């Protein structure tokens, strides 16, 4: 006989899956594919079963089906209408997975399979394997690739505790906890062989031991996601914890994670390819340097096929894409070089001599014995195609990594940019979607005609007010729950039910909390800020969220300062800090805000996609001209916070930029928001909202981003890999031999003398400058090099700005000095002002993507 007992703590937790009636088998198929996380019709189907339980589950179908009353499922199984509805949604999913999409029209030269490696993936709050922007971007990349039919397969790690859950102590200090996840209760399945045994990848580690990992797989629409997990009995206890937490460890623990991600990830892909019959990837995309070891694993396999290390490097580089997300060297993973050597010497990578591999991580200008092993440097050396994540970040990256290409100006550094985008179906509020469907006849909010008279200002304003109310109610619920948790389950005080107001201008600010993002810039003048919040005629309210890294006490102090400010009795209903920022919170926060604020130290924001998600919901941006906003800022879309980068010091800069922020809110933003017509609608404000939705949304979409990756990165990488790998990789062998020959001979290359003529004493626009350069090639041939003239305006530092490059051609005439060759050419002077030029020699080969690729250049003195 069972009897009730008081609640006790379990010694072990696991998930018991629900028994779903056969008539409702479609529900299980729908729940197993993460397309539900962005497909509103599927979410509506599950919500219909039990709206309260659906919200309580965090809108996670797997968890939800485990909690639904079996009697309710039996009732629905007998409901022919509901069964037919579920079947229609299942057929929709099957068609979505199978039907040709945009990518199929790209032609046979497009890559057959693209591998996308990332340390984190933010797809849904039901699969908490993300910490912030990098993971959310990766999740959006997968979703957009699925929508477009791009044949992507993604690889990451499964973290037993994911990232940490955040709570705030009464004194405002951030607290972390790491609740363990049960993968059996998540939308995951184990990758198994035909006989049912699980796939396991193995890595040799020091001490004669082995690290094993099973492979979980998730279906992200059409995209398979493989997640490696070391928490299995085959491992020693310490190795079982390698995948315990996302960014939870340092030193050797972090190195083990990145070795597993890169090396184990490629091995998992081989098993997946063999089991599914899918083509092994043509292109490998590293989302940051964490996955850099994938290049060494691929080199190891090529060595097994008979190539040398140098030859394999050429083949691997050709098909590799590297995306950097950090604008500061401190954001790059760096490991002790000796520790990396210890792992490489353990038999981890058959055929690879550590003496060949270790230089890949060497930091330029640092003696090998003093250099750390730098993951970004390895990533850039292993990838022939590299990019930053906004135009400005591309410029920053070219400067930051310039030392890898010594002698070249930053503009020549072979790092381009693909500006991030966000997945509109994931981040657009259902209320806005419903309005587009009803009034504009489309479910594509990203490309809808929001300027159409079919939607009135009043209707759109009403939807925005509803989304604001939704945010207010969600914030009150979260704050009340947090207060009760802090106070032993006591009932939350009445004032928490009055926090925020759905009719007050709402500004949002949410992100990770490193110091450069300046969480507390708004508190530079606390009295002025308080007056803005409590203005009786034009009040403002702020909703703030974000997590500091567990080891970042400075970031935690910023949170504490903000929380303590928000606890003031006169302000606590106008500014709130919401703990435990995650996808679920974000999907209420972005739509509920009227203005999205971002005030990093320029240019330290690589992209900053939170403002993009807010814009997708009709919010206007208030931001420093950094990241994506530097490309898209316009009066139609929001306001630019002036940058005071000429200030004497950081404190002065913060004061000036905060004052500009206050001015914008007080004198422009609030006046525009509260200037209403006789129907209570802020018409000029709504005009800006409409233009943001109509003009900005299409530019900010992840589909634009993924198309750009396909056209500018993936296709060129696949074509280059095919060229270098043709005829049994003979071109790779030839390129490796040519590279070695050019490197050996380069000290003998010199621009000996440059002659010029053709200009009058005072040059004018339209004149032509004739050049004749004498170049010593040493042991090289004319075909091995390109001789170029670099010209353009010069400014105070005498450097050439906005340089133009033109080839000089071999003259063919004999010279008195047999050791030199003569090259000639002409420059047309088409711009007035200070002008300068120089002549340089760079390596030339048809398989080089950039003249700077080898980092070799000889410049005229």
From TrEMBL:
InterPro entries xref list: Agluc_phsphrylas, Glyco_trans_35, Glycogen/Maltodextrin_Phosph, Glycogen_phosphorylase_DUF3417, Pyridoxal_P_attach_site
Enzyme Commission code(s) on record: 2.4.1.1
Positions of the DUF3417 domain: 20-127
Domain of life of the organism encoding this protein: Bacteria
UniProt name for this protein: glycogen phosphorylase
Keywords per UniProt: Allosteric enzyme, Carbohydrate metabolism, Glycosyltransferase, Pyridoxal phosphate, Transferase
Species of origin: Agromyces tropicus
Reactions this protein catalyses: [(1->4)-alpha-D-glucosyl](n) + phosphate = [(1->4)-alpha-D-glucosyl](n-1) + alpha-D-glucose 1-phosphate
């Amino acid at each position: 006989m069972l009897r009730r007992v008081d609640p006790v703590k379990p010694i072990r937790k696991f998930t018991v899956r629900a028994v779903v009636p056969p008539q409702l088998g479609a529900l299980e198929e729908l729940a197993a594919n993460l397309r539900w996380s962005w497909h509103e019709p599927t979410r509506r189907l599950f919500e219909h079963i039990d709206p309260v339980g659906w919200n309580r589950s965090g809108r996670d179908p797997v968890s939800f089906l485990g909690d639904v009353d079996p009697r309710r499922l039996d009732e629905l199984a007998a409901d022919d209408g509901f069964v037919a509805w579920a079947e229609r949604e299942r057929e929709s999913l099957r068609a979505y997975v199978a039907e040709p999409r945009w990518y199929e029209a790209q032609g046979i030269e497009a890559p057959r399979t693209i591998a996308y490696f990332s340390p984190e993936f933010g797809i849904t709050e039901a699969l908490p394997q993300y910490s912030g922007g990098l993971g959310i971007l990766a999740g959006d990349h997968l979703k957009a690739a699925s929508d477009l039919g791009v044949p992507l397969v993604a690889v990451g790690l499964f973290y037993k505790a994911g990232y940490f859950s955040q709570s705030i102590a009464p004194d405002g200090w951030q607290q972390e906890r790491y609740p363990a996840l049960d993968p059996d209760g998540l939308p995951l399945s184990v990758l198994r062989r035909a006989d049912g045994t699980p796939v396991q990848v193995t890595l040799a580690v020091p001490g004669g031991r082995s690290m094993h990992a099973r492979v979980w797989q998730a279906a992200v629409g059409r995209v398979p996601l493989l997640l490696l997990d070391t928490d299995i009995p085959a491992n020693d206890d310490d190795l079982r914890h390698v995948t315990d937490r996302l960014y939870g460890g340092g030193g050797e623990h972090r190195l083990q994670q990145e070795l597993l991600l890169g090396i184990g990830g490629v091995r998992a892909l081989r098993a997946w390819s063999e089991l599914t019959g899918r083509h092994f990837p043509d292109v490998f995309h590293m989302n940051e340097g964490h996955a850099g070891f994938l290049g060494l694993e691929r080199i190891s396999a090529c060595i097994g096929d008979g190539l040398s290390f140098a030859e394999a490097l050429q083949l691997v580089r050709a098909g590799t894409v590297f995306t950097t997300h950090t604008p500061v060297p401190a954001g790059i993973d760096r490991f002790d070089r000796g520790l990396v050597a210890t792992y490489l010497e353990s038999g981890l990578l058959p055929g690879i001599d550590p003496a060949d591999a270790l230089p890949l991580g060497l930091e330029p200008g640092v003696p090998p014995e003093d250099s750390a092993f730098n993951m970004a440097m390895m990533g850039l050396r292993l990838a022939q195609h590299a990019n930053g994540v906004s135009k400005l970040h591309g410029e920053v990256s070219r400067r930051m990594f310039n030392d890898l290409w010594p002698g070249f100006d930053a503009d020549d550094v072979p790092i381009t940019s693909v500006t991030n985008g966000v997945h509109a179906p994931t981040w657009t509020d259902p209320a806005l979607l419903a309005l587009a469907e009803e009034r504009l006849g489309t479910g594509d909010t990203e490309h809808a005609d929001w300027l159409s008279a079919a939607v009135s200002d009043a209707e759109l304003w009403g939807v925005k007010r509803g989304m604001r109310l939704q945010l207010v109610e969600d914030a009150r619920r979260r704050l009340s729950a947090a207060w009760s948790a802090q106070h032993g389950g006591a009932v939350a005080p009445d004032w928490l039910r009055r926090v925020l107001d759905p009719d007050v201008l709402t500004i949002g600010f949410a992100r990770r909390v490193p110091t450069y993002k300046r969480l507390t810039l708004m508190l530079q003048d606390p009295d002025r800020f308080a007056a803005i919040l409590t203005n009786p005629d034009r009040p403002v309210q702020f909703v703030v969220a974000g997590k500091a890294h567990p080891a970042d006490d400075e970031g935690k102090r910023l949170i504490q300062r903000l929380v303590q400010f928000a606890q003031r009795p006169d302000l606590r209903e106008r500014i709130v800090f919401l703990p435990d920022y995650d996808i679920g919170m974000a999907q209420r926060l972005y739509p509920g805000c009227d203005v999205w604020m971002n005030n990093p130290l320029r240019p330290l924001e690589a992209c900053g996609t939170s403002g993009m998600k807010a814009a997708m919901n009709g919010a206007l941006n208030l931001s420093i001209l950094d990241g994506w906003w530097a490309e898209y800022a316009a009066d139609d879309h929001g306001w630019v916070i002036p940058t005071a980068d000429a200030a004497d010091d950081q404190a002065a800069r913060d004061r000036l930029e905060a004052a500009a922020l206050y001015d914008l809110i007080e004198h422009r933003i609030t006046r525009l928001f509260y200037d209403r017509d006789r129907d209570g609608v802020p018409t000029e404000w709504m005009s800006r909202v409409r233009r943001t939705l109509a003009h900005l949304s299409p530019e900010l979409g992840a589909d634009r981003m993924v198309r750009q990756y396909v056209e500018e990165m993936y296709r060129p990488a696949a074509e280059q890999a095919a060229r270098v790998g043709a005829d049994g990789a003979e071109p790779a062998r030839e390129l490796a031999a040519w590279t070695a020959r050019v490197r050996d001979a380069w000290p003998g290359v010199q621009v000996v003398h440059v002659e010029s003529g053709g200009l009058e004493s005072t040059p004018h626009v339209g004149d032509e400058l004739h050049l004749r350069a004498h170049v010593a090639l040493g042991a090289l041939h004319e075909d091995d090099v390109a001789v170029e003239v670099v010209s353009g305006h010069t400014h105070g530092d005498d450097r050439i700005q906005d340089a133009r490059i033109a080839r000089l051609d071999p003259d063919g005439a004999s010279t008195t000095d047999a050791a030199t060759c003569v090259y000639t050419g002409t420059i047309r002077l088409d711009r007035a002002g200070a002008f300068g030029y120089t002549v340089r020699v760079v390596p030339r080969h048809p398989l080089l993507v950039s003249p700077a690729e080898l980092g070799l250049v000889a410049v005229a003195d």
